Amino acid sequence: MDYFEPKTVNDTLALLAKYGDQAKMIAGGTDIMVDVKYKEEPGCLINIKKIPGLGTIQENGGSLRVGPLVTIREMETSKLVRERLPVLWESCRQFASLQIRNTATIGGNICRASPSGETLAPLLVLDAKAKLAFSDGEKTEGFNTFFQSPGKTSLGDKGMLTGIDIPYPATGSRSVYLKHAVRGAMDIAMVGVAVLITPDSAKNSLQDVRIGLGAVAPTPIRAAKSEALLRGKPLSANLIKEAAAMAASESRPISDQRSSAEYRQWIVEALTRRGLEQTWKAVTGKEVV
Amino acid sequence: MSVTINTTVNGKSVSASVEPYASLLEFLRDTLSYKGTKLCCNTGECGACTIIYNGKPINSCVTLAADASGANITTIEGLANGEKLHPVQQAFIDTGAVQCGYCTPGFIISIKSLLDRTKKPTPEDIEEAVSGNICRCTGYNKIVDAIQLAAEKL
Questions:
Q1: Is residue B66 less than 8 Å (CB to CB) from chain A?
Q2: Which residues, including other chains, have CB under 8 Å from residue B142's CB and lie 6 or more apart?
Q3: CATH 3.30.950.10 correct for B3-78
């Protein structure tokens, strides 16, 4: 096996062009090391951790620019992330264990493209954008098209994630990330639901609503039909019930050793309902009736 | 091909070559013979291989050894001062927090790291600090007792 520690993005792209699908990129290593040991030894390991400038969190006007090498612990302990992007912060706080958070990177969680990747549903509801580098130029892409199937992204084996742009949600919005798992730590979500709502100025109805679902489809998804049902309307218990059922019907979970598909759909419904109730209460100070 | 790693383990500079795919755990145990750090799940889930890496607790089994060049590493062997055990080690003995002992080095490293961060850990701090360490003998109460005793002594 060949091993490289490129110092620039361009050097990395040149290695990808040379080795193609034989190349594996590694940063924190918490997933890749397990693959290297138990699945298949790659022809070439490209350690991107020595590339300068990819490990910072910077405020950029009304958004946050996060480098792919930023660790989950750095996200969790960032005042900017906690105050400006609480839905993403919450998912980082519930991520694996302290040891894993100290090494796992946000870029790795994204590029791994696991349907249950902890930060992915929050990134979807925040309308975050991926900065991608290819040998023929750079590209910006939303995460709604970036994730293609489990483990597959639009990077293929040719591109590299160089940054994540996360716009701040509108003033007055509220969000929540709810994870359903057996254990509090070191457990993969059976279902993860991120909800972000923005009320109108009178706090009577939903000006905007975004619902992200994790671990219940081949990629993390937005519950677009459920969002459309809610948008522009005053929130009532009946509407929440309808929207939560819609979100469950939009999910396409699999049955595996962690849970059955049917159970996952029940949980999507329950967490969507809870997420809408909690965020609405945070906005208005009142329970939904 | 192999890669040469220049790093600092328990205050000593070391230089050695390993295969590029080797984990830091393999490097510590097999190349440098620091056998106190335990190989257990080998997938980053149980915490038996926890070491302090540039001041932070990490799972050495899922860290690339080649990445450790220039790093500062503390293993369980680096805690005692000669014959005198570190207060966390002594607290584990005094409270009976060791059962089969296999998870113990990982726990002690996680707790040392916690007490380096804060002298007065809250129950939430303690829970977070050892959430990535699994004891299969099911002895968490005594481990929490040990943490509280060590915090009082430090």
A1: yes
A2: B95, B96, B97
A3: no
